[in-house]
């Protein structure tokens, strides 16, 4: 305010004798609060970890535009007696620079101090990897400091096997063959909400490796169902890689094709991508192998049934 009047232009001039008033907008509390209204579809739980089948539409952790109603808010309620969720300090400063959709990459840990900062992050207790808001499926969270540290290490060293199901546009490669996409991914310099394949890591991209296999196809509809395994976990990795090869995920508003998305809008109200399976050694009891499958939700099964009814029937079985 200049002399109690709001300034609307950045180049407004001031003169001697005028009073300038600056008012700061208070920030949101930097700590996730419990929310009992969000129901969790628990696939596996013990004293150290929790694996849920995340529904599409649920943001993983609080961020600008989504300070509440997230998976973390549900976890704080569900895991209240657990170590990580009892010790929830209010973070004095947390990086909140992520865009709304930037919630998919595995959390990379460079050193012990980075690990510690993630474990002590009051807005992301227990979080070790992320899924996009509109991606459904398996996500593992930690309930103890020991489990979270070890899970972060497992993800960093690529010892967690992750596979996804996606309905994509086009016919992709020959059915039953593994196809490797080894293409670095970096942020689009013209739009920070988008990622893109770069020519090399020197251009700001980071190594990204996906392996996909076509498991069903409908030539008349020009749609396929693919299984995708990712060795890395870059932001929007599968969506960017599938667009890169000309077979974007159906329903993807950022990387998809407008024509097919419009044509099949009733079939794909969101990006048809589902985190189907997680496989890793238990972070505390390392002799125990965790191998969890998340049944696809109704919208995925319906879309898959249009491509291949027998595959949809098989995936719908418990």
Low-pLDDT residue intervals, each spanning 5 or more residues: 92-113
End-to-end gap: 62 Å
* Structural shape: globular
The pLDDT mean sits at 86
Run of helices and strands: EEHHHEHEEEEEEHHEEHH
* Strand residue content: 15-25%
- The radius of gyration is 22 Å
Treating each run of at least 4 consecutive H or I residues as one helix, how many helices? 8
Main beta-sheet strand count, sense and barrel state: 9 strands, mixed
Count the beta strands. Answer: 11
| Fraction in helix | 10-25%
Structural class: alpha+beta
Structural summary, described in words:
With 318 residues, the chain is α+β, with helices and mostly antiparallel strands. Helices cover 20% and strands 22% of the residues. Strand 10 and strand 11 form a beta hairpin. It is globular, with a radius of gyration of 22 Å. About 7% of the residues have low confidence.
Structure summarized in a few sentences:
The protein is α+β, with helices and mostly antiparallel strands and 318 residues long.
Write the layout of secondary structure elements.
Blueprint: E1 42-45, E2 49-54, H1 71-78, H2 83-86, H3 112-119, E3 136-142, H4 145-156, E4 161-169, E5 178-182, E6 185-187, E7 195-197, E8 209-218, E9 223-230, H5 237-244, H6 258-263, E10 273-281, E11 289-293, H7 298-307, H8 309-316
Parallel strand pairs: 3-10
Antiparallel strand pairs: 1-2, 2-3, 4-9, 4-10, 5-8, 6-7, 8-9, 10-11
From the structure above, extract its key features.
nine-stranded mixed β-sheet, alpha+beta, 20% helix, 11 strands, two-stranded antiparallel sheet, 318 residues
